[in-house]
Amino acid sequence: MVVNSSNLKPEVLAYLERIGYSGPIDTTLATLTKLQECHVHTVPYENFDILNRVPLSLEVPDLLDKIVNRRRGGYCFELNALFGWLLMELGFKVTNYFARFWRDETDTPPKRRHHILQVEAEGELYLCDVGVGGIAPRSPIHMTENVVHEQLDEAYMLERDADFGWILSERKKGQWSRLYSFTEEPQLPKDFLMTSYWCENAPDSIFIKDAMAAIRTSAGRNTIAGEEFRIFTAEGVQAFTPKTKDEYAEALRTHFGININN
């Protein structure tokens, strides 16, 4: 389906400008793929509002203001909520799911604390996700079992499990490990409110402990862990820790496009 761009809401056009998308407006897989790739290269994953005790809102107008107007980022409940809204505005059929996040989890099985999207394009179903702070698919994953999806130097595969439903695994050093799992139970926007509140406020939530930020770049990816900035390129990793608040703010602007005062 081709969408007349003149019929799009100003907020949609502003969102497309925010992520640097200027291609066709239709519901093809090619467009879906480009939208997701644009998003993960322009909108950072970050938890600064949580650290600064600024209550999060998952309402679309508030997300548009934060992510599009103020050019901030967010975490999965913000990023995938707004990306899902964009896709629906462009004519895609989108279903929201909860996922259990397995990577780095020591108390397994993990709780459901991750928001993901199932998107229909050209009659096929795809897993889409722009809300992971670590390495994750940069392109949609076709929802078929046991098919390896090579994405540059990364590889992913969906499997089925009797207890946990779909499991997305990642290949690291020749070994497969679970990234996250989900069942096909559609969720409403309000269904994510309680879990997001837990992530913002629970004493054992990872989101309230240290700064986290990540964004893909043309050369690799940039991340923050606590106070340390890490710049990943093909040549290796450059790590540094800003010495002052001003240096920290400048590093945020340079490597993530974040003005923390916005």
Structural class: alpha+beta
CATH architecture: 2-Layer Sandwich
Counted up, domains total 1
H/E element order = HHEHHHEEEEEEEEHEEEEH
Low-confidence segments: none
Percent range for β-strand residues: 25-35%
The overall average pLDDT, rounded, is: 96
List key phrases describing it.
27% helix, 5-stranded antiparallel beta sheet, alpha+beta, globular, 262 residues, Arylamine N-acetyltransferase fold, single chain
Question: Can you tell me about this structure?
Answer:
This protein has 262 residues and is of the alpha+beta class. It has one domain (5-256): Arylamine N-acetyltransferase fold, CATH 3.30.2140. It is 27% helix and 29% strand. It has helices at residues 10-18, 29-42, 48-51, 60-69, 76-89, 193-201, 245-256; strands at residues 45-46, 93-101, 112-121, 124-128, 141-142, 148-151, 154-161, 165-172, 175-182, 212-216, 221-225, 228-233, 236-240. It is globular, with a radius of gyration of 18 Å.
